[in-house]
């Protein structure tokens, strides 16, 4: 056994029996388990956070079905590499010994541009390969529509506490190195908290604890040892970019907390780490709506403009537009009233169901509808002073509901004042 191989790699499952999590896909009624049992895999895309088993699951499917397995990374592969792999796969599929279509696994498929994704279409459509893609980004935004229509999207979830416990037990019992060591598990709160549902991160932390314990000392797992080890080795559990979500979280929280200095620092960390600029720009658009909202409606315009600029001018100049946007949003007044309003309204819809639209608000394009009272009594606001007239707009059952509650800022105070004056 090579102890230089990371624990996460040593513990990589080779069958569904050792695979932890994603019961909705690999459990008794899971779609991927059924693919394996029938020996026929269709093209699909695995969407989920880092360290939840996307690559492992693709390898298990290939191993179980006995077909050739090709892998490409969207970070390092271009159209040339894609075409070369497809030529090899086509030769395999025509072989007399072929058991089925070769599998082409593409890691981080969201990083493929349109022309790279286009180069896959023909092979997937003809059945030359079964495509399995892995992505941490929403495929609806990052994968071209023709490719999406040829591949199902399956969502993977972060491991829950039960899943992390199962992974911990399996590592301590079955790993060739850890199973021979004395291990004292005293506390698991910090271990599970830092892992955050990421299997690779949890195993990398265990790896770090084992290395720091020394060959003749017991491995102590408790909150203090986990925290101390990670503070001393901040990159030790980040070999494959698992801090992706930690840093974007710090970035968003810094802007929400109106700290432009911290916002630019975390932005710089992402720029230096090679983060996808469109990922950053999308998060800024979400933040502008969720955390600034009506306190400064221009924030959404600025965030959209930054996204546009990144698309138009590319990298590295796009970092300047992102910096300008981040600083502007950090310095903007904050309000989550629009975010809270839609959440409250959706909760009400789920609770009350499909309440009927008041008759006077309905269109009446036919004679029958007019006879039934559709549109009758509706008052056209522009026919009245200040383009306002009091009438009922909500269903009868919700007539007293107030979904929007203005935030404590000048912009929304003015909005509320205008509404109060109109209603008086």
Any overview of this molecule?
The chain is an alpha/beta fold. The protein has helices at residues 7-10, 23-26, 31-38, 54-65, 79-93, 114-126, 139-142, 145-148, 161-174, 189-195, 199-213, 223-232, 244-256, 260-272, 277-292, 298-313, 318-331, 337-352, 367-371, 410-423; strands spanning 44-47, 69-73, 103-107, 130-135, 152-155, 183-185, 219-221.
Can you summarize the main beta sheet?
5 strands, parallel
Radius of gyration from CA coordinates: 27 Å
pLDDT below 50 for ≥5 consecutive residues: which ranges?
234-242
Count of alpha and pi helical runs: 20
Ordered list of secondary-structure elements with their pairings:
Elements: H1 7-10, H2 23-26, H3 31-38, E1 44-47, H4 54-65, E2 69-73, H5 79-93, E3 103-107, H6 114-126, E4 130-135, H7 139-142, H8 145-148, E5 152-155, H9 161-174, E6 183-185, H10 189-195, H11 199-213, E7 219-221, H12 223-232, H13 244-256, H14 260-272, H15 277-292, H16 298-313, H17 318-331, H18 337-352, H19 367-371, H20 410-423
Parallel strand pairs: 1-4, 1-5, 2-3, 3-4, 6-7
Helix pairs in contact: 5-6, 10-11, 11-12, 13-14, 13-15, 14-17, 15-16, 15-17, 16-17
């Amino acid at each position: 056994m090579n102890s230089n191989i990371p624990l996460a790699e040593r513990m990589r499952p080779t069958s569904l029996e050792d695979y932890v999590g994603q019961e909705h896909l690999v459990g008794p009624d899971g779609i991927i388990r059924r693919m394996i049992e029938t020996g026929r895999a269709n093209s699909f895309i695995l969407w989920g956070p880092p360290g939840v088993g996307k690559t492992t699951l693709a390898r298990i499917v290939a191993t179980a079905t006995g077909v050739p397995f090709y892998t490409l990374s969207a970070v390092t592969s271009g159209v040339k590499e894609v075409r070369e792999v497809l030529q090899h796969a086509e030769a395999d599929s025509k072989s007399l010994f072929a058991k089925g279509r070769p599998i082409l696994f593409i890691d981080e498929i969201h990083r493929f541009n349109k022309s790279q994704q286009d180069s896959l279409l023909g092979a997937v459509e003809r059945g030359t390969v079964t495509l399995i893609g892995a992505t941490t980004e929403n495929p609806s935004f990052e994968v071209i529509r023709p490719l999406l229509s040829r591949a199902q999207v399956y969502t993977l979830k972060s491991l829950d506490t039960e899943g992390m416990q199962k992974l911990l037990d399996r590592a301590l019992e079955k790993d060739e190195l850890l199973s021979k060591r004395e291990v004292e598990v005293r506390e698991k709160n910090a271990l599970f908290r830092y892992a955050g549902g990421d299997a690779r991160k949890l195993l990398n932390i265990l790896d770090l604890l084992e290395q720091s314990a020394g060959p003749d000392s017991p491995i102590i797992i408790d909150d203090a040892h986990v925290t101390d080890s990670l503070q001393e080795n901040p990159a030790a559990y980040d070999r494959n970019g698992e801090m992706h979500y930690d840093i974007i979280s710090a970035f968003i929280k810094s802007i929400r907390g109106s700290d432009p200095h911290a916002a630019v620092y975390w932005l710089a960390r992402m720029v230096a780490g090679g983060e996808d600029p469109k990922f950053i720009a999308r998060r800024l658009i979400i933040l502008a709506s969720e955390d600034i909202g009506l306190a400064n409606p221009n924030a959404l315009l600025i965030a959209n403009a930054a996204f546009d600029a990144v698309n138009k001018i590319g990298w590295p100049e796009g970092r300047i537009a992102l910096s300008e946007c981040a600083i502007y949003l950090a310095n903007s007044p904050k309000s989550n009233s629009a975010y809270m309003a839609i959440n409250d309204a959706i909760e009400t819809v789920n609770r009350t169901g499909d309440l009927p639209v008041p008759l006077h608000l309905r269109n009446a394009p036919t004679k029958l509808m007019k006879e039934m009272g559709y549109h009758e009594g509706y008052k056209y606001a522009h026919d009245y002073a200040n383009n306002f007239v009091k009438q009922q707009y909500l269903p009868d059952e919700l007539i007293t509901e107030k979904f929007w509650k203005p935030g404590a800022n000048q912009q929304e105070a003015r909005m509320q004042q205008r509404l109060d004056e109109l209603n008086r």
